[in-house]
From TrEMBL:
Protein name listed in UniProt: Inosose dehydratase
Taxonomic superkingdom: Bacteria
Annotated Xylose isomerase-like TIM barrel domain residues: 122-372
Residue ranges, compositional bias (Basic residues): 11-21, 30-48
Region of interest called Disordered, as start-end residue ranges on this chain: 1-79
Pfam families for the chain: AP_endonuc_2
Stretches with biased composition (Low complexity): 49-62
Basic and acidic residues biased stretches: 1-10
SUPFAM superfamilies tied to this protein: Xylose isomerase-like (SSF51658)
Length: 379
C-alpha cells in the first residue's frame, strides 16, 4: 500500500504527538518540560550515548510513527499478471488464426461461408487482426471487404513451401502469395515447409533428414521471391514437416542469410518438438518478425510420442496436445519477453484444435488470457 493511501486514515482528526500524551501519573510531557526549565533539572544520562531514533516518515499532518530500526522498507513484489514491458506492449499487436473454424470434421474448408461464420463470432471478441488466408476465387480486395464487413483487419498469412517440388516452381507460387499479402497491407508472412507422410506418421522426433540441404535451397529461393514483393518471410517450424526439431531449425536459419530470411517461431510446435521456446527465441531474437502464440499439454505430447501416435491421433483423435493460451505448459510470457524492445510485429494466437467446448469459447478464453497478461490495448 502506498504511503499516501495510508495517510488518508488520519484526515479529519488531529494526531496527538506521542511525546505530548499524558503519562500514567496524569502529567503531560509539556508540563514536565516546563517543570524542568524552572528547576534547572536535566534528563538523566543514558549509558552508551543518546538513543538513536529512526527517521520519521512524513505525512500531510506531520510526523508519523517511525518504523522499527530493524524493519526493512516494504518492497513491491513482481506481479506477472500484467506484462511489465509496457514499451513493448504498446508496439506489437495480437491477432488470431481462425483455424478452428476452417478445420471442419469433413476436412480443411477455406470457403467464404465458413469464413463468414467464423468472422461473425470472432467479431464478438476483442480480436481484430485475422491471419490472412484468402480462399480460392477471392482476391485481396474481396477478402479485405469480407474482413471489413465484420470490423476485422488482415494480419500476416502463411505460405507452405513444397520441399519436394522444384525450387523455381515453389518460388513462383510464393511470389503470387506475397503479392496478395502486400496488397492486404501485410509486411510479414510466415514461411513453412509442407507436412510430409513420414513426418506425419512419426511427428516431433526428426530424422536427421539427408534431404535437408534441398529443403534449405527451397526455403532460400522461396524467401528471396517473397522478399522481392516487399514482404518479410519468417521461417515457421512446424511439427510434421521437414523443419520441426531444433537442429533442423538452426540449420536453416544459419544457412540462409538474415537479410533474406527472418524467424517466425510457433511456441507450441517448438515445445512439442522438445525445444524450450524462450531459449531458442532469445538466441534468434533479432531475426523474429512475427510469432505464433500457442500452448501445449506436454504430458499429452509425451504420451503421443510413447504410443508412436501419428500427427492427427496426437492432436485430434486420441490425445490432446493443443490447448488455449495459459492452459498448457508453455511459458508464453517468457517467450514474449525475448522479443526486443524494437519489435513491432504481430503475435498470432493459434489454437489448432480447441480444448474448450466450442470455437467461440476457445477464442474467448484466448482473449481473456491476452487481456490479463499483455493488456487490452494489443488487439
Amino acid at each position: 500500500m502506498c504511503r499516501r493511501a495510508t495517510d488518508h486514515h488520519h484526515l479529519g482528526q488531529r494526531r496527538v504527538r506521542r511525546r505530548d500524551r499524558p503519562r500514567h501519573d496524569g502529567t503531560s510531557a509539556v508540563r514536565r518540560r516546563r517543570r524542568r526549565s524552572r528547576t534547572g533539572s536535566k534528563r538523566p544520562h543514558r549509558p552508551g550515548g543518546p538513543r538513536q531514533r529512526p527517521a520519521l516518515r512524513r505525512g500531510p499532518l506531520g510526523p508519523r510513527r517511525p518504523l522499527p530500526l530493524a524493519q526493512p522498507r516494504p518492497q513491491a513484489t513482481l506481479n506477472r499478471t500484467l506484462f511489465q514491458r509496457s514499451q513493448l506492449v504498446t508496439k506489437f499487436r495480437v491477432g488470431l488464426n481462425p483455424l478452428p473454424w476452417v478445420l471442419t470434421p469433413a476436412g480443411f474448408d477455406l470457403s467464404v461461408p465458413i469464413l463468414q461464420g467464423a468472422f461473425a463470432e470472432i467479431a464478438t471478441t476483442p480480436f481484430r487482426g485475422i491471419h490472412a488466408d484468402p480462399p480460392a476465387g477471392l482476391d485481396a480486395a474481396g477478402y479485405r471487404a469480407l474482413l471489413t464487413q465484420h470490423g476485422l483487419t488482415p494480419a500476416p498469412g502463411y505460405f507452405s513451401a513444397d520441399a519436394t517440388a522444384p525450387p523455381g516452381e515453389v518460388a513462383e507460387a510464393a511470389k503470387r502469395h506475397a503479392a496478395v499479402q502486400a496488397e492486404l497491407g501485410n509486411t510479414e508472412v510466415f514461411l513453412a515447409t509442407g507436412l510430409t507422410p513420414d513426418r506425419i506418421a512419426h511427428p516431433a522426433i526428426g530424422y536427421g533428414d539427408p534431404h535437408l540441404p534441398k529443403v534449405i535451397d527451397v526455403i532460400g529461393a522461396t524467401a528471396e521471391a517473397i522478399k522481392a514483393e516487399g514482404v518479410t518471410p519468417a521461417l515457421h517450424p512446424h511439427v510434421g514437416s521437414p523443419i520441426e526439431i531444433e537442429p533442423e531449425i538452426r540449420a536453416v536459419l544459419d544457412a540462409v542469410p538474415s537479410s533474406i530470411l527472418s524467424f517466425g517461431p510457433d511456441t507450441g510446435h517448438l515445445a512439442w518438438a522438445g525445444t524450450t521456446p524462450a531459449t531458442l527465441m532469445a538466441e534468434y531474437a533479432g531475426r523474429i518478425a512475427a510469432v505464433h502464440l500457442k500452448d501445449v499439454h506436454l504430458d499429452q505430447a509425451q504420451a503421443a510420442k510413447d504410443a508412436d501416435a501419428n500427427y492427427f491421433d496426437a492432436t485430434v483423435h486420441k490425445h490432446t496436445v493443443w490447448t488455449e493460451p495459459g492452459r498448457g505448459d508453455v511459458d508464453l510470457l517468457a517467450a514474449v519477453a525475448t522479443l526486443p524492445d524494437t519489435f513491432d510485429g504481430w503475435l498470432i494466437v493459434e489454437v489448432d484444435v480447441p480444448e474448450a467446448e466450442t470455437n467461440l469459447k476457445s477464442t474467448q478464453l484466448s482473449a481473456r488470457w491476452i487481456t490479463k497478461h499483455l493488456g487490452p490495448d494489443v488487439f
